[in-house]
Design goal:
InterPro entries: HTH_17 (IPR041657), PBP_domain (IPR024370), SinI_DNA-bd (IPR010093). Helix content is 33%, strand content 26%. α2 packs antiparallel against α10. The protein is elongated, with a radius of gyration of 26 Å. The chain is of the alpha+beta class. Strands 6, 7, 8, 11, 12, 13, 14, 15, 16 and 17 form a ten-stranded mixed beta sheet that branches. It has a three-stranded antiparallel beta sheet with strand order 1-3-2. It has eleven helices and 17 strands. The protein has two domains: 60 residues, Orthogonal Bundle (Arc Repressor Mutant, subunit A), CATH 1.10.10; 184 residues, D-Maltodextrin-Binding Protein, domain 2.
């Protein structure tokens, strides 16, 4: 980036020029070290404000603007050297806790990506199911939550639940990824399980997920659409806390079927019957305090580095990653 070629710069251009991350630029703006303004959804920094920031951070003197000396041009600065200030005791800047709630491994990669930026946020992980994560956000106990909640009435994911639980609040929904969900069955599928209707077979024993998980809600909504009474299913009350545990129960022969995602089936070594492509979204409140964080999260999600990390895991669809799915006005 060359000075004076443009009246203003984007945060990406500033990050490239200063050789720092975009999140660091957001942090400088938030602390008032770098002046910025908004044009639509984009932050802009004027060239003169960039130069002012660079001058302020230079060592070797304090710049004062000349206003009275007749022998110098008005725009020529005078440098006044000063004795070095005595060393101050180091005080660590406290990190602001950022709770990311959800169970998919992609959230661990997101937390790591935030941590690598060197920003003032300290990402902490909460491994809580989708519905309980939303309830935690409503109570102020989570900052970024992930959801994959199927609504049988509309045939859509997430928004019907988010709109009801966060009614009256301002929030944004951003896609993290999409993934294939369906049924774990034993190798070679000896019970010939193919669809949701097969849960009505009294010879089939299942293993379930905990109440509030996305997989449990998907099952319950599909059973309701098929007219199947859950309490009539052998094993419906048997609960596990994650996809791997459910797949392991099927692999061991303790259960014939369970609901989960394709990646867990591949990790455990059970067969998988894909039945739906579920949308896995992130939800964040919209506040003045987290505006820069929201932009930074979307920047991470859309970055080639992050998408390459997720893509290397396999089993994920990233075609919508970073896309705003819904935003309150």
């Amino acid at each position: 980036m060359t000075n004076h070629q443009a009246a203003s710069y984007t945060t990406e251009e500033i990050a490239d020029h200063l050789k720092v991350s975009k999140l660091t630029v957001y942090d400088l703006i938030k602390k008032g070290d770098l002046r910025a303004y908004r044009v639509g959804r984009q932050m802009r920094i004027d060239a003169e404000d960039l130069e002012a920031y660079k001058d302020k951070t230079k060592s070797g003197g304090v710049i004062e603007k000349q206003t009275t000396a007749p022998s110098l041009k008005p725009e020529t600065p005078i440098y006044r050297t000063e004795s070095p200030a005595p060393p101050r005791q180091y005080q660590a800047v406290p990190l602001q806790q950022l709770i990311i709630s959800g169970q998919d491994i992609s959230l661990d990669l997101l937390a790591n990506a935030i941590g690598r930026t060197g920003a003032v946020h300290n990402p902490l992980r909460s491994y809580t199911g989708s519905l309980n994560s939303l309830l935690a956000m409503y109570k102020g106990e989570a900052d970024i939550v992930s959801t994959h909640l199927f609504d049988g009435d509309t045939g859509t994911y997430n928004l019907p639940y988010i709109n009801r639980i966060l009614s009256g609040r301002e929030y944004i929904v951003v896609n993290l990824l999409s993934r294939s969900a369906g049924l774990f069955v034993q190798k070679n599928n000896p019970k010939n399980i193919r669809t949701w209707k097969d849960f009505a077979d009294p010879s089939i024993k299942m293993v379930n997920r905990e109440i509030g998980s996305g997989a449990r809600i998907l099952l319950d909504e599909k059973l309701k659409l098929e007219g199947i009474v859950p309490r009539h299913i052998d094993g419906y009350q048997s609960e596990e806390m994650n996809h791997i545990a459910v797949a392991s129960k099927v692999a061991s022969g303790i259960a014939d079927v369970g609901v989960g995602i394709e990646k867990a089936a591949a990790m455990v070594g059970v067969d998988f019957i894909p039945l739906i492509l579920e949308r896995y979204d992130l939800v964040m409140f919209k506040t003045a305090e987290n505006e820069l964080l929201r932009e930074a999260i979307r920047s991470i999600l859309r970055s080639p580095e992050f998408q390459n990390e997720i893509g290397a895991l396999g089993g994920y669809d990233l075609s919508l990653t970073g896309t705003i799915m819904f935003e309150t006005e």
